[in-house]
Amino acid sequence: MKRTQAIELPAEEIARQKEVMREFAALADRPKTYCVVTYGCQMNAHDSEKLEGMLHEMGMTSAASRESADFVIFNTCCVRDNAQRRALGNVVWLKELKKERPELMVAVCGCMMQQPGMGEQILRQYPFVDVAFGTHNLYRFAELMLRAVTSRRRVVEVIREDEGSIPEDLPVLRSSPYHAYITIMYGCNNFCSYCIVPYVRGRERSRASARILEEARALKADGVKEIMLLGQNVNSYGLDVEGELSFAQLLEKLDEVGIERIRFMTSHPKDISDELIEVMAKGKHICHALHLPVQHGNNRVLQSMNRRYTRERYLERVARLRERVPDISLTTDLIVGYPGETEEEFEDTCSLVREIGYDSAFTFIYSPRVGTRAADMPDQIPEEVSSRRIQKLIAIQKEITHERYAAYIGQVHSVLVEEASKRDETQMAGKNEYNITVNFPGSRELIGQIVRVRITSAGESTLRGERID
Ligand code: SAH
Ligand code: SF4
Ligand code: F3S
Q1: pLDDT surpassing 90 at residue 93
Q2: What is the mean pLDDT of residues 104-119?
Q3: How far away, in angstroms, is 335 Cα from ligand 1 center?
Q4: What is the pLDDT of residue 164?
């Protein structure tokens, strides 16, 4: 069933939260400085920008270091076991700091909190955590903090809500003046067998296109040069709302706003439409870079993963993309050691990677997540087998990256200059249209500008060049 409109939280609720932020700021006895520690994907990075926006409204400023902050908040990820363990390990590290400084406040939020039983576990095992909440009630952060500070009691609130809602108009503190994230949709409906994201982020819900366009125009007016549209599966944007634009139509409208660069992630290969490919081909500002996670190269595994495309279909989509957008730079995510993966099946991933020639790839060892279908499958692959396979895959991709990057030598790329090298003030770094870091000699005045750079050499994960204008 499609909704008739985007499920936004009532404006009065956000207004009430802003009121609470001001109330918090007026407290005499409250933390003054904060540190936000972020794990996971861009979605979480953007949530942290919202947390920082709220923290500023609550009268706090960013601390010089994690050790000196009055308040430390961990925005966690649980997509793989190591992501979760890293986050928890750091939370425990704070326990010691809190012994020295009992007034230190600690909060934990994000995807990890949204797993069943996690709220109780935090209460039981982590008595030094003052505040904990999940992804669905991030907008209530100020209220939870106010309650914790004024009652001097621990506050744990995780809403177990599959549907989810959309909070509009929360304050945001962007981490860069030149690029900005725009969430276009929340949640995921795909339920890939290995993945926990649909359980911790709820169902797909698209923001109203009018809101997105309004945000993009405001960012342009603010001098933003690059926007990154966010969603777990941006290609299904709008499908949940009656009469809403499709992703391709939204992209076309955003292109007209005139921001220099538009990127988006993540695209699910099953819904890369011809319409979208055309918009990418014709767009003036849409970067010719696409992150298109394939996960695996074998059809039995893809089917078991519930990815809903075959190797052949994926190759066909890539061929179409390359035909219409010949310079497109493709990147991907790959999983090795999925339950039951045989040596031959793994080889299919290797051959697919060779056949496609990605600019780069993120490779992951399959990590069982409680509550997902794959976690209960027989034939879980031993760690030593997965490790050997991932090493092989990394080596293959490394060679391909080397070849792909070498082919960029001699080309002129546009680079959005972001920073000077930490080691050498005369070396600037930024991203080209393909999202690859390019280093070149220059000066700090160029930061925030888009300049033309001729590529002169290629490193393992970066390019080097010379400015030509
Ligand atoms: N929505 C995005 C990806 C989100 S998670 C998409 O569909 O592409 C980012 C990546 O983490 C996935 O692409 C996948 O490669 C990896 N991943 C997710 N769950 C995993 C698991 N249980 N074990 C190992 N890797 C996993
Ligand atoms: Fe996870 Fe699949 Fe959804 Fe991506 S599309 S978030 S991999 S369930
Ligand atoms: Fe991790 Fe949540 Fe993103 S589980 S990958 S932070 S959506």
Answers
A1: no
A2: 94
A3: 8
A4: 79
